[in-house]
Amino acid sequence: MAEHLERPKLVVDFNSSKPLGEVVYEALREAIIRNQFKPGERLMETELADEMEVSRTPVREAVRKLEAEGYVVMIPRKGTYVASLSIQDVNDVFEIRAALEAMAASQAAVRASEEEIAAIKKCIEAEAVLWESADLEKTVESDIQFHSLLYRASKNKKIESLINDLREQTQRLRSSTLSTPGRLKFALDEHRQILAAIEARDPQGAHEAALAHIERSREVMLGLLRYQA
Asked: pTM higher than 0.70, yes or no?
């Protein structure tokens, strides 16, 4: 099976101190979050076990946990499938994210230290180079870093905590939107607009730039869902 994969092979860390079922679960969850398994794609326990070189038992345990968390759905007599994202799911997550990120950007414009602003600027400069590559994994990581620096610069621990609660949902959406042709360039420009407002100590401008950034991401994600429907 591994020879014909169109995605990175699932690798299990057999040296981990965690139970094997937990390690398999983390590998599968990460692959789903990174959109390596597409919504609606069927997951075959036997094939996954062969790919990861484990028995079916830890795979079955992992799949049950993923089902409980909403990552997969198990349909009697049909099989296990990656859970699809509904338009309502996307709107719910982005509404919360828009409010929190706009607030974080606004507060960062007032509260961020010069060192924190420099760190955000350095991150964007690195993004500009990195995003020329086709490495989605590193692209997603750099996007996560930008937003993490933004939350930290807001000096509001509750915003960081609330955003972290949405981490898994937003990371799955982030992988989908950033893989859309042309989105990287616009996302990078939007990051620069947020930074410019923060550097200018303009809380209203930062609020509006962050809101526009999340709204654009939401539009891209909804467009993908409608295309896949």
From this structure: yes
